[in-house]
Amino acid sequence: QVQLEESGGGLVQAGGSLRLSCAASGLSFSSGRTFKTYAFGWFRQAPGEEREFVAGISWSGQTTYYSDSVKGRFTILRDNVKTAVHLQMYNLRPEDTAVYYCAADYTPFGSGPARTSEEYDYWGQGTQVTVSS
């Protein structure tokens, strides 16, 4: 059972930066489901809104996708040695305020990253990001 734990959220002023991290555990090399067999995504959900895709990264890190609203401001990275995924956020805006979730998608054939939440198998509990104006 894969477990994901987000960290790094907080309160920041508009124009500021934050780095979110997602630590993955419960991966089993013996089952073949190692960290590198998962693509990862970050999603966010603001109060009263639906959960939306923010960024995704393939198993190798070579393919990344971003929503139009964060492209050029956010960067998704993965560390296959430390089994962690990061979301570096720059030039934050009040509209970036939301709970941010890390998600893992089992992709044994190297596909992804997916951009819809239904494709993801495991989710973290989320971390709150609040951007003040």
Report on the structure:
The chain is mainly β and 133 residues long. The strands form two sheets. Strands 2, 4, 5, 6, 9, 10 and 11 form a seven-stranded mixed sheet that branches. A four-stranded antiparallel sheet has the order 1-3-8-7, with no helix packed on it. The model has no long low-confidence stretch (mean pLDDT 93). The N and C termini lie far apart (40 Å). Helices cover 0% and strands 47% of the residues. The protein has strands at residues 3-7, 10-13, 18-25, 38-45, 52-57, 64-66, 74-79, 84-89, 98-106, 122-123, 127-132. The chain is built from no helices and eleven strands. 34% of the residues are buried.
Topology (SSEs and partners):
Elements (H helix, E strand, L loop, with lengths): L2 E5 L2 E4 L4 E8 L12 E8 L6 E6 L6 E3 L7 E6 L4 E6 L8 E9 L15 E2 L3 E6 L1
Parallel strand pairs: 2-11
Antiparallel strand pairs: 1-3, 3-8, 4-5, 4-9, 5-6, 7-8, 9-10, 9-11
Label this structure with key terms.
single chain; 133 residues; mainly beta; 7-stranded mixed sheet; 4-stranded antiparallel sheet; globular
Low-confidence spans: none
Rg (C-alpha, Å)? 14 Å
Overall pLDDT level: 93
By secondary-structure content and strand pairing, the structural class works out as: mainly beta
Distance between the termini: 40 Å
